[in-house]
Amino acid sequence: MASEKERMLSGQLYNAYDSYLVAERKQARSLLHRLNITDYGNQVEYSKIISELLPNCPSDILIEPPFFCDYGYNIYAGNSVFFNFDCVVLDVCPVRIGSNVMFGPSVHIYTATHPKDFMKRRDVFEFGKPVSIGDDCWIGGQAIILPGVHIGHRCIIGAGAVIAKDVTDDTIVTSRHQG
């Protein structure tokens, strides 16, 4: 029988309040707290926290605190990735980010989602769908990337856009202008 973590990582329904997963999220919260209060000039401490929180990311990843994620170890990034202030990554499934990707402030990436059956939601079951973002993308401030989305290479996602479907290479996606 698969553990709740194995079920989570494979995109199956899992119990989010499994004691092992709760402990892993608490560990991530502790590291995030340290990251979010670390003096930006203290590169040694900053690098140490980043390498522990994001073990699948290169050392040149740059994050402007505050930053928030569920686990950290499900975030995979290429070289020269930049997260601006106040970004959130719900990484219950892998989030794969190419090289030379920039995230504006308050970008949210969600892999976590919930069953349509309200009884399963009551029992705190959820599941995830991985997200991937290609090389050389620019994700504008307050954009939201929903579970299961694949964004191709060299894309621009405009500020405030909600990305619910895959985006092909070299595409610009903006939210509707109203006013």
Describe the structure.
The protein has helices at residues 4-9, 19-37, 43-53, 118-122; strands spanning 14-15, 62-63, 67-69, 75-77, 82-83, 87-90, 95-97, 102-103, 108-110, 112-113, 125-128, 131-133, 138-139, 144-145, 150-151, 156-157, 162-163, 172-173. It has one domain: UDP N-Acetylglucosamine Acyltransferase, domain 1, CATH 2.160.10.10. The model has no long low-confidence stretch (mean pLDDT 94). It is built from four helices and 18 strands. The N and C termini lie far apart (54 Å). The protein is an alpha/beta fold and 179 residues long.
Total domain modules = 1
Number of strands: 18
CATH fold node name: UDP N-Acetylglucosamine Acyltransferase, domain 1
Trace the largest sheet across and list its strands.
2-5-8-13-16-18
End-to-end CA span: 54 Å
- CATH architecture descriptor name: 3 Solenoid
What is the CATH level 1 assignment?
A: Mainly Beta
**Sheet bearing the most strands, described?**
6 strands, parallel
Which ranges are low-confidence, i.e. pLDDT below 50, for 5 or more consecutive residues?
none
Assembly classification: single chain
Strand residue content: 25-35%
Could you name the key traits of this structure?
about 180 residues; six-stranded parallel β-sheet; alpha/beta; single chain; five-stranded parallel β-sheet; 4 helices; 18 strands; UDP N-Acetylglucosamine Acyltransferase, domain 1
